[in-house]
TrEMBL record:
Keywords noted in UniProt: GTP-binding, Nucleotide-binding, Nucleotidyltransferase, Transferase
Pfam annotation, one family: NTP_transferase
Residue span, Nucleotidyl transferase domain: 5-282
Catalytically driven reaction(s): alpha-D-mannose 1-phosphate + GTP + H(+) = GDP-alpha-D-mannose + diphosphate
Protein name (database record): mannose-1-phosphate guanylyltransferase
């Protein structure tokens, strides 16, 4: 059973402005450790799969940085999308590459910008998921919920499967607080972590059945893998693939979907408010960085300084970020709205800050 990790690195991470920019999105930032998130993502797979069998999918703007941050990745394993077309085409691109090498090879599709506190437990869960996938299931990892989170989608558990895992009864969109509380209390729901494990041939069959509009394009890509014509075929075909997520395109339609529960200290590090989940805080709940940063009489704040002095006094549950050329101040409970700053800068054509 050969495993082929696929690290999805196409996101923009606008909720982390001003640290994240178009050329340096969230996955390239050291938000959870001293290393960028994408570097940590690749490193935690050591012992489970080889780097020579690992792929990264990203856009042209980020290809050079991705290759630099995941040292040792074979150049041919860097799959560059000509244009962004959502997760279904991105996963299809990786799947045809793996299928050309090993039709029954098992892909492990991972976001590049998540944090895992217990890598050993994570690898163990992925190995279990791979055994399920070997039997023909398309597996998604479900994260054991620790709170009624309204920012995540949920997976409703169905009946148990032979050999472990559960059938998926339903995928649920991000709920309101009351609904999320009901999900957690019931014990029948898991967070949807966006991590998928499947055999290459099984996913290609799923695309053919549930996204038939992709069939012609995938056939062209499959026929060109390994040939000098592949870049030209990719450039021609990829922009015509439907811009659809794998969730809508396949996961919510297929009958062979399984979910494997996992509890390994997962966080999607979805905004600055999530930083305390992945970084140690002081006695008053503040997460502070920057040699010249001074925090006085604050509680529950995230204060990330640059090289110059940054002083924050008397605040509670506030995010303050100095990126050198731009500063952000926002209440933690409004940190999801940081993307609106990016929209406003775009409207003002302030390209130098994007």
């Amino acid at each position: 059973m050969a495993l082929y990790p696929v690290i999805m690195a196409g996101g923009s991470g606008t909720r982390f402005w001003p640290l994240s920019r178009q050329a340096r999105p969230k996955q390239f930032l050291p938000l959870a450790s001293k290393l960028p998130l994408i570097t940590d993502t690749a490193a935690r797979l050591k012992g489970l799969a080889s780097l020579k069998d690992t792929f990264i999918v990203c856009g042209p703007l980020h290809a050079k940085a991705a290759a630099k941050l995941v040292k040792g990745l074979p150049p041919k394993n860097l799959l560059v999308e000509p244009v962004a077309r959502n997760t279904a085409p991105a996963i299809a691109l990786a799947t045809v590459q793996v299928a050309a090498r090993d039709p029954q090879g098992i892909l492990i599709v991972l976001p590049s910008d998540h944090h895992v506190a217990d890598p050993a437990a994570f690898r163990k869960t992925l190995a279990e998921a791979a055994r399920l996938a070997e039997r023909g299931h398309i597996v998604t990892l479900g994260i054991q919920p620790h709170r009624p989170e309204t920012g995540y989608g949920y997976i409703q558990l169905g009946e148990s499967l032979e050999g472990g895992g559960r059938k998926v009864k339903a995928f649920k969109e991000k709920p309101d607080l009351e609904t999320a509380q009901g999900y957690v209390t019931s014990g029948e729901f898991l967070w949807n972590g966006g991590i998928f494990v499947f055999r290459a041939d099984v996913m290609l069959a799923a695309f053919a059945q549930h996204m038939p509009e992709m069939k012609k394009g995938l056939a062209a890509l499959s026929g060109a893998v390994g040939k000098r014509t592949f870049p030209a075929v990719l450039k021609k075909v990829f922009p015509k693939l439907p811009a659809l997520s794998i969730d809508y395109g396949v996961m919510e339609k297929a009958s062979n979907i399984a979910v494997l529960p996992g509890d390994f200290g997962w966080s999607d590090v979805g905004s600055f408010a999530a930083i305390p989940e992945v970084r140690p805080a002081d006695a008053r709940g503040n997460v502070i960085s920057g040699e010249e940063t001074v925090v006085v009489d604050c509680e529950g704040c995230v204060v990330l300084g640059d090289k110059r002095p940054l002083a924050v006094v008397g605040l509670t549950d506030v995010v303050v970020v100095d990126a050198g050329d731009a500063v952000l101040v926002v209440p933690k409970d409004k940190s999801q709205d940081v993307r609106k700053v990016v929209e406003a800068l775009k409207a003002r054509r302030r390209q130098k800050y994007l």
